[in-house]
Amino acid sequence: MMSYVKKVLSDLKEKNSSQEEFLQAATEILESIAPVFEKHPEFQENAILERLVEPERIIMFRVPWVDDNGKIQVNRGFRVQFNSAVGPYKGGLRFHDSVNLSIMKFLAFEQILKNSLTEMSIGGAKGGSDFNPKGRSDGEVMRFCQSFMDELYRHIGPNTDIPAGDMGVGGREVGFLFGQYKKLVDGHVAVLTGAGLEFGGSLVRKEATGYGLIYILDEALKMRNETIKGKNIVVSGSGNVAIYAAEKAETYGAKVLAMCDSSGYIYDNNGINVDIVKEIKEVKRGRIKDYLKYPNTESAQYVEGGIIWNVKCDIALPCATQNELSEESAKILAKNNTKYVAEGANMPSTNEAVDVFLKNNMLYLPGKAANAGGVATSALEMAQRSSRIQWTFEEVDAKLKTIMVNIYHNIDNAAKKYGFEGNYVVGANIAGFLKVANAMLAQGVV
Ligand SMILES: NC(=O)C1=CN([C@@H]2O[C@H](COP(=O)(O)OP(=O)(O)OC[C@H]3O[C@@H](n4cnc5c(N)ncnc54)[C@H](OP(=O)(O)O)[C@@H]3O)[C@@H](O)[C@H]2O)C=CC1
Ligand SMILES: O=C(O)CCC(=O)C(=O)O
């Protein structure tokens, strides 16, 4: 059956030769699900893979807006509606200057399997723009979001496609996007998750991706008679996912030694004060190096442009961006005896880095399983919104924990069933794929 996978992959490479990140994600996924086709010839007979790798729809559009100097700026907007077999399209919006079609497609492709793993009825999508909100005034961000929504609104809806935040899109941006959507359609509907608590949002959504990462890690460690308590952790990034992963890890008794942004990392052998990072990033929208200006941070250092994975740790949590953890960094982690890697970001480790983790018998939890808590809580937000109720923080948090524990056992069982015990690349991809493939099969050739 490998020949079937190889053929689909080689056609995909020919058709999308310049889409590096998309091909990276597709190669990892397709190669790891190859064993499924031995047991399920019906998938090949029905061209499930050929259909799965082709997005149902891609929307690309112009986003013109006026900056604070009265100058007209033009960005490019995207929404990749990749697969709606399991449910309406669902996935975040990323505003970052690196955004291009390849990155949008890789993120949307990953999202299909991730959303399937949550066991909620949500399909896979992703969108965004090459606009970077960093350094822009609130007024500029608002005008950009309004122009972005002027086009996007006609392609989304509470039963068709429900975007949310991702890199560069937090509460402020979701608020502006929602305001413009509401004005355009004249309806207060649940079309974006990660909404403010005042207008339909859910408690815990902000914390969910980072907390969920620690919940699944905790379960994986428990199954090995291990615990997070007392472990030294390095968390890359200092955005939404990184902050709440670090916060939860500390409540479990771990010490967070280092965090970073794209300029450099801070390191403190006594442990980072996550509240300061939160203040710098969520309130001041500043740089991580500002950490050293705060009281009681004398034992911390800032390393400009340094590679955070050089810091010796027991647990590595890549929570920044794709391909931030190279093969070389993976070898350093292995040499430093790091035993656990759990991904808060999407595809932060290169495929070569993942090979190093697996060869060294490190526990590796891939992003599509480990960071699924964010989108799962988005689905909980949709459930609350449609039934006009609001669960307490504790209720949502308990549901999130259950979902993450279930994901762990689901990927663990799938890995065992297919003869790859402990390999969660195989486990996550197969478990996610089977539900989507069966849904596609049931719905005919569409
Ligand atoms: N938000 C969510 O709910 C979910 C997010 N994810 C994924 O998690 C990752 C982080 O998202 P999120 O926290 O929301 O994004 P944010 O924009 O809130 O934060 C991103 C962080 O990563 C840093 N960063 C970006 N590029 C690099 C780089 N090359 N090297 C080092 N640090 C870098 C940023 O620093 P700087 O400020 O300098 O750019 C920032 O601190 C992404 O891969 C995203 O797709 C996955 C599931 C859900
Ligand atoms: O909450 C969501 O809908 C999307 C989250 C997301 O973008 C992701 O899981 O990568």
UniProtKB/TrEMBL annotation:
Binding-site positions, NAD(+): 209, 240
Binding-site list for substrate: 90, 111, 114, 165, 378
Domain of life: Archaea
Gene Ontology terms describing biological process: glutamate biosynthetic process
Keywords, in A-Z order: NAD, Nucleotide-binding, Oxidoreductase
Oxidoreductase found in the keyword field: yes
Site (Important for catalysis): 166
CDD domains registered for this protein in UniProt: NAD_bind_2_Glu_DH
GO cellular component: cytosol
Domain Glutamate/phenylalanine/leucine/valine/L-tryptophan dehydrogenase C-terminal: 202-444
Active site: 126 (proton donor)
Family label: Belongs to the Glu/Leu/Phe/Val dehydrogenases family.
Subunit comment: Homohexamer.
NCBIfam families xrefs: PRK09414.1 (NF006929)
Name of the molecule in the record: Glutamate dehydrogenase
Primary gene name: gdhA
